[in-house]
Design a protein that fits this description.
With 414 residues, the protein is of the alpha/beta class. The protein has four domains: 145 residues, 60s Ribosomal Protein L30, Chain: A; 34 residues, no CATH class; 82 residues, Arc Repressor Mutant, subunit A (Orthogonal Bundle), CATH 1.10.10; 113 residues, NAD(P)-binding Rossmann-like Domain (Rossmann fold). Helix content is 39%, strand content 17%. The strands form six sheets. It has a six-stranded parallel β-sheet. A five-stranded mixed β-sheet has the order 2-1-3-4-5. Strand 1, helix 3 and strand 2 form a beta-alpha-beta unit.
């Protein structure tokens, strides 16, 4: 063998941690694969993608020779448990699969009499021809576009666990993007969340009120204990995700028994701050604002609208339920004097940002925004947008496939 081979073999052994027959096989495979692709110097194998069919010793040597790495997206593991490697030229599409011949250890032992036992296989393998060591097949490999090297395309967020998904690895289930772990099951089982910071995914926080609602329903039915499977069925998420969500906030439930419904409901209510009364101010008392004032669901859940404001002189001073509508110019003084924590925006889009600015200036840190406009606020202010039209437009995306492209008029009743 050449000096180049010995240098590569030494580098592979250093990377792997010791010299073994697998290093010889890997170096020889990589050199042969590059040669078949017309790559004279393995260091120039920039367009080569390697598919490994084993994660054992051979793989380290192939990486060293070709420079292909997972981080460069040039190394793929398809674990068939075989000592086989496929080399693909991404530019030309040429591809060769090289597999170690069966009985190679016995062949090497027979070719190395008189050598020290530890050295025999290595030295004997190094002396064999490529034909004696490998079978070679010209193959066709279609590398998916999402597996190519280069800049990552925009990712999506899993609708269940809230973790980001890159490189088009999402699975669409019932119109929702899921990671493969949530869609098909993961290789791990969550025992306990070990938080490294106080930050909790927003998607988890948005699910907490739904847990409280489900637990309240179960409690009203006289159910005292519920499993993660039961909670997941109600919320249409996996039991593993239920456990993961709740682990962000501590230990709940007993393995194999489930969660105490009333206790969990009360603890989640405390986590959400629902064990106290929240005062709110409404800005905009038109048709939408009037409907919001008349809705009794807020007060039942501990949210009290204690002030209402409008910019229309015709409305200022009139009564809306139990409140007298105030001039919006009185907003700041009223918010501070009454200790109001949440502002509700129910104004036209053109006025939305101005109202949000006024609420922030008055000390409001939570905004429920009904205006059809995404307001901009400082990072310390939390905004939730409620726009039924946007929701309806997302529904029509799915209905279009069912109802076809018929004009709306053709669906009208006569």
């Amino acid at each position: 063998m050449t000096v180049d081979f010995q240098e590569l073999l030494a580098a592979a052994a250093a990377f792997h941690g010791h010299l073994c027959p697998g290093q010889v096989l890997g170096v020889r495979m990589a050199l042969l694969g590059c040669r078949l692709l017309g790559v004279r110097d393995p260091r120039e194998a920039h367009d080569v993608i390697v598919y490994l069919e084993t994660d054992r010793c051979v793989s380290d040597a192939v990486q060293i020779v070709t420079g292909c790495r997972l981080g460069r997206r040039a190394l793929k593991l398809v674990d068939y448990g075989k000592v086989a490697v496929t080399f693909v030229d991404q530019g030309s599409g040429a591809a060769f699969r090289i597999a170690a011949r069966e009985g190679l250890r016995e062949t090497a032992a027979a070719c190395g009499p008189g050598l020290a036992p530890a050295a025999s296989p290595v030295r004997a393998l190094a002396g064999l021809t490529d034909e004696a060591m490998f079978s070679v097949q010209r193959v066709a490999v279609e590398v998916p576009r999402e597996d190519w090297a280069g800049h990552a395309p925009p990712g999506v967020v899993c609708a269940e666990c809230g973790e980001g998904i890159n490189d088009h690895r999402e699975v669409i289930v019932n119109g929702r993007p899921l990671c493969r772990a949530c869609a098909h099951g993961s290789y791990y089982r969550i025992v306990e969340s070990a938080a490294v910071s106080d930050e909790i995914p927003e998607v988890v926080i948005l699910r907490l009120p739904l847990y409280v609602r489900v637990l309240s329903q179960l409690e009203s039915r006289g159910i005292e204990v519920a499993s993660s499977q039961v909670l997941g069925d109600f919320l249409q998420i996996s039991p593993a995700l239920v456990r993961k969500d709740l682990h962000y906030f501590g230990r709940f439930g007993t393995q194999g028994q489930g969660y105490q419904v009333r206790q969990l409901k009360n603890e989640l209510r405390q986590i959400l701050g629902l064990d106290r009364t929240w005062t709110m101010a409404l800005v905009g008392v038109g048709q939408l604002g009037t409907a919001i004032l008349s809705y009794g669901g807020f007060q039942q859940q501990g949210f009290h609208i204690v002030a209402a404001f409008d910019a229309d002189p015709a409305r200022v001073g009139s009564r809306a339920g139990d409140l007298i509508i105030q001039d919006v110019r009185e907003l700041q003084e009223t918010v501070r004097s009454k200790g109001i924590a949440i502002g509700i925006v129910a104004v036209p889009a053109a006025a939305g940002q101005g109202v949000a600015d006024a609420l922030v200036a008055s000390g409001i840190r939570g905004i429920l925004n009904y205006a059809p406009f995404r307001v901009h606020v400082p990072p310390s202010v939390w905004v939730r947008d409620v726009d039924p039209v946007v929701v309806l437009q997302s529904i029509t995306f799915h209905l279009k496939a069912v109802c076809g492209q018929r004009p709306v008029a053709s669906l009208a009743l006569t």
